[in-house]
Structures
1.
Amino acid sequence: SREAFDTLYTVILGLAQIAAPFFPFLAEHIYKHLTGRSVHLEDWPEPRPQRKDPSLHKEIESVRWVIEAVRKVREKNSIQLRQPLSFAKIAGVESEVLRKHGDLIKNQGNLKELIFSEKPEEFAQPVLMLNSKSLGPILKGELKTVQSLVREGEFELLDSGEARIGEHTLAKDHFNLVWSALDEHESSISENSLVVSLSLNITEELLIEGASRDINRIIQDLRKKLNLPYEQKIVLAIDAEGTWKAAFDQFKDWLLSEGLITKISPSHFEPIEEIENEKGVLRVSISSV
């Protein structure tokens, strides 16, 4: 959009001005290309408080946290980003924020759906991790009783951020609150009031789509091995079995478009990539047109 272009233009000009003392030739090249003037004849940029938007900053910070949370859950469960997943349940972020930035979150997290919840209790349960070192001198002989109640889930979270356990009210610096997914096919991550639970159920349909993205990555890696530029049109040779074959057949048009493939050859040539795993057997090679 025009607004995005104007923002990028302003940021690049400001960055060139700030970087000029450190990267004089590069900054000069960028600034002169955009303005026709020398960056070294410009004044040092002054801060403009009117450009600050605290509400937008908070909004984007929550979006960034959700995206990073999804990636951390993927990493914890050894699921590559190329593998699409069904959904992520999210609490602690306003529904309007998710509506505005939902496509970005789904794109960055490779998700099919975002599910908003008013309260994390709808999809996760709170787990208290007591700081026994700090609580020992306070609770003394009651510490084991409190620990037993926590293990049994016998505690109450207060609006103040404190936790009531039996007759004791614990300040929030005496425990850590984490959220555990209620569904065994989900994995959650939390920070303060923000909670994300990610579906780990990879259906056959999702597995095939993920395999197609792997094939695309393999083709691009072969380009690098052959020192072929991205815009170079190529010929593809492929032999696939199992999930790999299903992925290529179903996403053939997309793969040909993404890889700038003009022809599929029945023969193989070097270099060749060969993979044999739970998805079946895949052999791929490319050559320039």
2.
Amino acid sequence: MSTLKTTYSSEKQQYKVDVLIVIPEMSSGGAERVVSNLIEYWINRNLRVAIYSLLYSRDQSFYRLDPRVLWVNDDYVSINHPSSLIRSWTHLRRIRKLIVSLNPRSVLSFLPSANVLSILAATMCDTRVIVSERNCMKKRPIDFKWRVLRFLTYRFSHAVVVNLSSNIEVLARFVPRGKIIYLRNPLKRPAPAAKEDRKRIVLCIGRFTEQKRIDYLVEAFCASDIAKTGWELHLVGYGPLKSDITALAHRLDRYESIKIFEPIADVWDSYWDASILALTSKYEGMPNVLLEAMARGLIPIVTAGVGDLATQIFDCDERLVVPGGDVIVFSRMLREVCEHKVPSGALEQCIKSKIEPYFIENTIVDWDEVVWGTHRS
């Protein structure tokens, strides 16, 4: 770290900002959570951070970013612009102009569209471009034009960051393997709990989309019949399937035990009372909600689609990882945990040991090496 600080000191006058972050939006999603955690850490180290969001202005950001962050797109291009091509071209020109005017040491972008635009905008500029994939590339559908552009451009970045091991093989088909770097999501360590009493709450946080399969969780919860002993299912999120999930809950929930809430910016408040975190995703990269729940001491019950974290949970108790989309198996697992048929003491210690490497004080060294160019493949 001392070498890194020396480098900053000697080059301080060269760069108007240390890093320009480019991301489609600053909503309540996982990539946005990673960005907010990194920004907070870097700002507190007196690094200069600018952010360009393709879709959001500062006032629309879900996360409360430090006022020292330079938000450089208050005149953002509306998603309702009639031409996607003109919208993309406008973003490309603006990012290019920012790179020239701010002369960032590094550009760090998240998700395919922002990644492609950042690489193209930085052409012939003396700045590092690090792009980041945050989901399962084999299964996550993206628009054809971005898929082609990703194939053509990613090789010209300085590094491609992934948080799912299977993405390495996908990227290696068109990116030099030495540029592909696996980094854990940086996780803020939660403050000591003000209260330790757990309530009979199964928690799920995520977008209401096909990927998350929240309808599957609703069916499994109702089939488990744990509601009759006082258990509730709390669903926190938003998305296109929210009305469908609400209708399904009303139809299946005999005990009025399923509650639906909007996401909140202070993420830890969502975990205070819950005992179980349930995720039924078809696929994921590295879901922050799962990391945060494990850090807060919740018992995770997940499908195998939640990414590399499923393997670590399996190491603690294989019953907590449900293969495929079997509602009956998932409901049985919910019932066993709620009836205390899964030992909690040893499980809690195992989960704590698995989550420790993800805390930001442990992961930031690797992020620094990649972002600031000290990483050696």
